């Protein structure tokens, strides 16, 4: 394998954003599509609820736009939101053309609902929407001759010439060699950063790599204080925060305390389908005040066959842990779920760095504001993947590439201290969970900032002394992203949406984004 590889386009990430953008590129462009794990591994595959779109004659675009803005505490950008929502029905159609069979009832889409939506507008494939989207997208990508797939290749850093991005340094995990992937345009589609928290609904891939790489390349990083905590993840020692979809609550499931009492009426008149920030804070408050390990979600009053038809994945998973959801309430706790902030982009996915795009959860195009509305994320992935690819297709390329110095590991030695990496990984995630969680305070944020900065120094030293590894790359990105989150949280002196600070409980009349730069 050569140390340098040349492509027209490099796409980092094979989630729904990465795969869809690759499929939309002109057939004559050579494309490298890389994934740091197996090709299907990533948040997209595990998506349950669905994809939001105005598909019902009772619904309309303005209502979807208003719900998105209001769920995001009015911090979202109306122009960007409108751009996405008006393309949602076409996004559903393009997924159908690729083979996704959305659940139908009596010849119509079965549209479900979730927190913040004032109409039924969530198209879904039972409770395995992500699996269906991903397998169909990947199948189509595999049929394209000029798309080259690289599995278990992890991007380390972007290759820069001045202020232009020219590709990335990438570690081949199979042989631990670093290769330079040189490209005219690079698209970051690496997903979110919820793994900076100890408990998360996300798979292991969500370590904020794209955000950290973009930050080091001088991209603007926006609104990272807004980590979304999903209210209902399965509480079981072996469940690894398996998600219990919000669509259960959309279909009437009740949140109850261990004694069976409902409690959402104390917090919001929309009860269980209030936006996620409100429901997660309500659960957190009940757990902390009463010393409970979890609360419960009950859908057992619904017909057994209906439950099994609509929620087969959740039913199977819970059954494997001895929980019969048709007969008993499910133990649930909140866990980090979605990164609302990210790499700043325009509506074509372009960042402020030349030849560099960002799409999907890694990006901040102005959609989610201070809290993402349920099922708007897969939609964002599809719409912005298409916009980004269309923009790239309109560019002209000179077919020559400059060369870059190969990765130099001559001064690094094999590490005898791998335990440091695992220890620091764990420490960062505990600090974030305990000090930068659902409810924050100035004291806890500053304590987190101090310790994270010490850890950053320890990681920098380790990074320069020892040979690179996948765990070390992720730890370096995790600590960078954690620090950006804390810095953003400290600079927001109000409570808004997902960012609740006890020292500033009010929402300011001034609406502004938080932008962090290197
Ligand atoms: P991902 O799908 O996370 O893919 C990231 C890709 O980047 C992976 O291929 C990974 O290997 C690769 N990668 C990362 N770092 C590197 C690196 N350094 N080098 C190389 N490759 C790298 N949203 C909805 O709208 N509806 C839902 O129903 C829904 N349900 C969800 C359920 C769960 C359990 C979870 C976790 C999320 C859910 N979401 C849902 C959110 C949504 O799934 C994600 O926001 C979205 O899928 C992100 O897609 P993506 O393409 O940006 O990233
Ligand atoms: C869910 O099904 O609850 C997740 C939906 C989402 O994150 O948008």
The number of strands is 21
Q: What is the 3D form?
A: globular
Q: Mean of residue pLDDT?
A: 96
Q: Given the helix and strand composition, which structural class is it?
A: alpha/beta
CATH superfamily of the largest domain: FAD/NAD(P)-binding domain
Distance between the termini: 34 Å
CATH topology of the largest domain: FAD/NAD(P)-binding domain
Say which molecules are bound, naming each kind only once. flavin-adenine dinucleotide, succinic acid
Strand content: 15-25%
Work out the count of structural domains. 3
CATH class designation of the largest domain: Alpha Beta
The low-pLDDT segments are none
Radius of gyration, CA atoms, in whole angstroms: 22 Å
What can be said about the biggest beta sheet?
7 strands, mixed
CATH architecture of the largest domain, please? 3-Layer(bba) Sandwich
Number of helices: 15
Helix amount, in percent? 25-40%
For this entry, give a set of tags.
Flavocytochrome C3, Chain A, domain 1; binds succinic acid; binds flavin-adenine dinucleotide; alpha/beta; 35% helix; 518 residues; 7-stranded mixed beta sheet; single chain; 21 strands; FAD/NAD(P)-binding domain; globular; Methane Monooxygenase Hydroxylase, Chain G, domain 1
